């Protein structure tokens, strides 16, 4: 239960999350573990069972980003190197969704990965997407958050500061309508490495 939202700008990305957790029995608390994890030059927002976030935060070493990786080269790197390493880390720890084998599925995890100022959505089947709308949402409150982002984002005047404010408002709206989402909210930014 969570909401993680991201906005893709020109050469930058902003990602934000709530901090509430809940159990199937209805118990609610505030997480001391961030739902957006900083691993070197990666920002990884994880929606799903806490075990996946534990593994990524404490046991996953992402592959180094190639120098000057931008555009299609960056996407090829994410698809061919990052996602297989990510999948391996989750599945070897007994979590995640084994690709194309729903019979063995344990705990599906949806993620937003920001690298070099670019947002990639990694779905629970390890498919990787980039949305031409440049707005992203995963988690139980994602529908509310994405709708709010769409309504609130002024793409003609979009700056990092406006994206941060918009994500905060959209997370608040998600929390109002999704019982699995709650404050405090956390915002992270990343700009592209042009070097």
Short description:
By secondary structure, the chain is an alpha+beta fold.
Features:
195 residues; Glutamine Phosphoribosylpyrophosphate, subunit 1, domain 1; 4 helices; alpha+beta; 5-stranded antiparallel sheet
Task: Outline the structure in words.
The relative contact order is 0.25. The longest helix has 22 residues, at 71-92. The chain is an alpha+beta fold. The strands form three sheets. It has a five-stranded antiparallel sheet, with helices on one face. Strands 10-1-2-11 form a four-stranded antiparallel sheet, with helices on one face. It has a two-stranded antiparallel sheet with strand order 3-4. It is globular. The model has no long low-confidence stretch (mean pLDDT 89). It has helices spanning 50-59, 71-92, 142-152, 160-177; strands at residues 3-8, 12-17, 20-22, 28-30, 36-39, 42-48, 109-115, 118-122, 128-129, 135-139, 186-191. It has one domain: Glutamine Phosphoribosylpyrophosphate, subunit 1, domain 1 (4-Layer Sandwich).
Helical proportion, percent range: 25-40%
Biggest pleated sheet:
5 strands, antiparallel
The oligomerization state is single chain
Tally of distinct domains: 1
CATH topology: Glutamine Phosphoribosylpyrophosphate, subunit 1, domain 1
Arithmetic mean of pLDDT: 89
CATH class: Alpha Beta
Amino-to-carboxy terminus distance: 38 Å
């Amino acid at each position: 239960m969570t909401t993680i939202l991201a906005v893709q700008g020109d050469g930058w990305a902003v990602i934000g999350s709530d901090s509430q957790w809940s159990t199937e029995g209805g118990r609610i608390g505030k997480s001391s573990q961030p739902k957006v994890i900083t691993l070197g030059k990666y920002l990884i927002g994880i929606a799903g069972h806490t075990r996946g976030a534990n593994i990524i935060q404490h046991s996953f070493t992402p592959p180094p980003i190639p120098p000057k990786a931008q555009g299609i080269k960056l996407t090829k790197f994410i698809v061919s190197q990052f996602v297989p390493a990510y999948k391996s880390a989750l599945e070897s720890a007994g979590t995640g969704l084994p690709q194309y084998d729903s019979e063995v599925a344990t705990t599906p995890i949806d993620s937003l990965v920001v690298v070099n100022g670019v947002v990639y959505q990694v779905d629970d089947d390890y498919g990787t997407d980039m949305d031409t709308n440049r707005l992203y949402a995963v988690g139980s409150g994602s529908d509310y958050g994405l709708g709010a982002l769409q309504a609130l984002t002024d793409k003609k005047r979009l700056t990092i500061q406006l994206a941060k404010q918009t994500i905060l408002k959209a997370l608040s709206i998600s929390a109002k309508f999704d019982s699995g989402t709650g404050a405090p909210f956390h915002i992270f930014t990343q700009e592209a490495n042009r070097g």
